[in-house]
Amino acid sequence: MKKTLFSLAVSACLGLIASPSMAKDEWPTDTVKIIVPFTAGGTTDIFARVIGDHLQKAFGKPFIIENVPGAGSVNGIAQVARSKPDGLTIGIASTSGLAINPQLRPDQVPYKPLKDLIPVTMFDKVPNVLVINSGKLPVKSVPELIEYLKKNPGKVAYGSSGVGTSQHLAAELFQQMTGTKITHVPYPGSARMVTDMIGGQVAMTFDNVPLLLPHVQGGKLTMLATATAKRAAFDEKVPAVAEFLPGFEAVAWHGFIAPAGTPKEIVDRLAAEVQACMKKPETIKKFSEAGAEAVATSPKEFADYIAAEMTKWKAVIEKANLQVK
């Protein structure tokens, strides 16, 4: 009898010791919520659903999307940061939500990117492109544009989708690296800005490929270059700004994040499966057709990239003396 009781006690203790590991191995134990900090139907939302479908098949549990837009993606990311770190709430983060807004408007961002969140994996880079209205700017290349801007300081207007967006800071970085001065005209989103650009109210912009490409292909706007480190896969005939300004890069990127405290085993399993999805030919094709580059990084690589982006954009923000209240 004593031996039996002893055996049961030992088994119970072993069970208690093993249970945390077993719980991690069994993750997910229930439905996983993916918080997307953008509106439904947008490019990032569509990409999140593609990856969510893959995760659902891989893990055998539902992965559902919850759209929490607003405040330059801050609202959705803040909800992830506040969530229980059990792997059942994860989210999508972006350039603006992790690398820009926390430094541009720190009093309005209720989280520290690398303290309150765990980077899981980056899954895409969406090139910004330098596009002009040729009727307003008589130039055909980046060097010609730089020369024209230097001769006409402050006389050329560029549009952006708002103060503090990656498009706005791309233009600020361009000015800082070229010693030029361009007048900023911020809009409440890109759609109206593009309409005004076609109409000639603004002469140039840095914005995402999916938005601008149809207007370039239709002959209404002219693409001078991509804001990528090298020529972009969507059209390798288009030069990169970096060919004329070494080190210039201003892309929008997105990745998965989890609340701080989420077990490493869960983070690693999630990262591995997202990476597997991003390496599938059909995923690469789908992302490429939307003007995005499919990416698959480790958690550490993503964390290092975020840290580098925070340093880079902090310097741009401080040099431009940008303030948002």
TrEMBL record:
CDD domains given in the database record: PBP2_Bug27
The entry's keywords: Receptor, Signal
Q: Which domain of life is it from?
A: Bacteria
**Pfam families listed in its UniProt record:** TctC
Q: Which residues form the signal peptide?
A: 1-23
State the family named in the UniProt similarity comment for this chain: Belongs to the UPF0065 (bug) family.
The entry's protein name is: Tripartite-type tricarboxylate transporter, receptor component TctC
Q: Which organism is it from?
A: Propionivibrio dicarboxylicus
